[in-house]
């Protein structure tokens, strides 16, 4: 949230500062020469500060990295709103909205080409504000102009790559436990084995878990493999011990996947696990995905006697014992039936179904089944 508030707050702060300078000049506290100098440096400083904040927080604006307009209709609508805003609010030749020199400034006069450019920037700037507002607040603004089918919702999937031999991991393990209790969040803990050489062999770790983390890094193209690393919905990775970053990633992934989510559910019928998967959303480009089944334990508490965490007892939420593909989805509704008695012998008491593009792509849907 701070990434969205701070740049705007800084901009408004500079506007207040400019108004304050004007008031002080009117009260005779500041000289007109000082005010002229202030007018010269306030604008570039304001621009630099706001752009700097936007650049610093850009990695958190995941909503804007996929697309700004959901379609041509929204694009035309936003530009139209920009024109109306420009004409009704910031038209330069109205006395009360006068800008530039004291004599006024009319961008439509002959020779005022720079003014025409500035007018165009203002129009499209206002249009972009409308589009960005719609992206940050799905379901409001332009997103609600036309009635459509109810949005498909599903749990956010947080995969934590952790290790019993990593001194930075216990806070992330505790945070995952907290997230496990949150509605709308499905968690999985993958203990890796590449820290085993530090003096403690991870009792929950496996090479398969480490390979899954490396595969994610290759799929993203950034090569980032570390602990504690949280991967959210197969899309974003953040420090798994930073609650704010994890929650921001959950919000961002929710926006990016809102048009491709697929309903997934899991239930037991006697000794059979039934997994139901719905149809692809209308217009969705994601119409093929792998159905993965992760076998996990509800919790595992491990006393650690050596390594960086020696003397600690750590509880892991949904530690994965095995994850394997069990089917393919082609965009149409389908059901899978798997024998529960075979799954119970594999060391877990809860089963997590993931509908994922490939092995490390976006997770379109997920469901949790806990054995009684």
Care to describe what's here?
This protein folds into two domains: 2-144, no CATH class; 156-370, no CATH class. The protein is globular and about 85 Å long. 28% of the residues are buried. By secondary structure, it is of the alpha+beta class. Strand 12 and strand 13 (363-370) form a beta hairpin. The strands form four sheets. It has a four-stranded mixed sheet, with helices on both faces. The protein has a four-stranded antiparallel sheet with strand order 10-7-12-13, with no helix packed on it. A three-stranded antiparallel sheet has the order 5-6-11. It has helices at 2-26, 32-57, 63-66, 72-89, 113-136, 170-180, 207-220, 243-256, 340-344, and strands at 156-162, 185-191, 229-232, 236-239, 264-269, 272-277, 289-296, 299-303, 313-317, 320-329, 334-339, 350-356, 363-370.
Contiguous low-pLDDT stretches (5 residues minimum) are 65-70, 91-105, 135-148
- Which secondary-structure class do the elements indicate? alpha+beta
Q: Helical residue percent?
A: 25-40%
How large a portion of the residues is in β-strands, by DSSP E?
15-25%
C-alpha Rg, in Å?
Answer: 27 Å
Cα-to-Cα separation, first versus last residue: 39 Å
Strand order in the largest sheet: 2-1-3-4
Count of discrete alpha- or pi-helical segments spanning 4 or more residues: 9
Largest sheet: 4 strands, mixed
Task: Please tally the β strands and state the result.
Answer: 13
Mean pLDDT: 80
The tally of domains stands at 2
Shape: globular
| Strand/helix succession | HHHHHEHEHEEHEEEEEEEHEE
């Amino acid at each position: 949230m701070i990434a969205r508030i701070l740049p705007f707050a800084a901009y408004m702060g500079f506007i207040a500062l400019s108004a304050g300078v004007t008031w002080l000049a009117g009260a005779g506290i500041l000289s007109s020469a000082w005010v002229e100098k202030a007018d010269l440096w306030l604008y570039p400083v304001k621009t630099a500060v706001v752009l700097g904040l936007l650049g610093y927080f850009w990695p958190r604006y995941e909503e804007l990295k996929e697309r700004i307009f959901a379609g041509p209709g929204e694009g035309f609508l936003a530009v139209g709103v920009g024109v109306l805003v420009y004409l009704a609010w910031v038209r330069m030749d109205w006395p009360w909205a006068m800008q530039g020199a004291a004599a006024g400034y009319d961008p439509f006069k002959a020779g005022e080409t720079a003014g025409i450019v500035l007018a165009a920037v203002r129009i499209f700037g206002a249009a972009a504000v409308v589009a960005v507002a719609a992206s940050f607040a799905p379901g409001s603004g332009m997103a609600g102009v036309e009635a459509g089918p109810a949005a498909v919702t599903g749990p956010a999937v947080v995969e934590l790559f952790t290790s019993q031999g990593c001194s930075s991991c216990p806070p992330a393990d505790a945070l995952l436990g907290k997230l496990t209790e949150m509605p709308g969040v499905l968690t999985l803990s993958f203990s890796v084995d590449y820290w085993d050489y530090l003096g403690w062999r991870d009792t929950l770790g496996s090479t398969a878990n480490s390979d899954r983390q490396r595969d994610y890094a290759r799929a993203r193209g950034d090569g980032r493999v570390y602990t504690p690393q949280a991967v959210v919905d197969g899309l974003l990775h953040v420090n798994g011990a930073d609650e704010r970053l994890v929650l921001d990633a959950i919000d961002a992934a929710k926006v990016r996947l809102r048009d491709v989510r697929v309903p997934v559910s899991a239930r037991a019928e006697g000794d059979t696990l039934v997994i139901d998967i719905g149809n692809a959303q209308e217009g969705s480009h994601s119409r093929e995905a792998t159905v993965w089944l992760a076998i996990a334990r509800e919790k595992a508490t491990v006393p650690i006697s050596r390594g960086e965490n020696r003397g600690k007892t750590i509880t892991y939420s949904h530690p994965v014992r095995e994850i394997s593909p069990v089917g393919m989805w082609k965009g149409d509704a389908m059901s899978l039936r798997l024998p529960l008695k075979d799954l119970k012998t594999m060391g877990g008491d809860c089963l997590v179904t993931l509908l994922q593009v490939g092995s490390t792509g976006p997770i379109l849907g997920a469901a949790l089944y806990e054995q009684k």
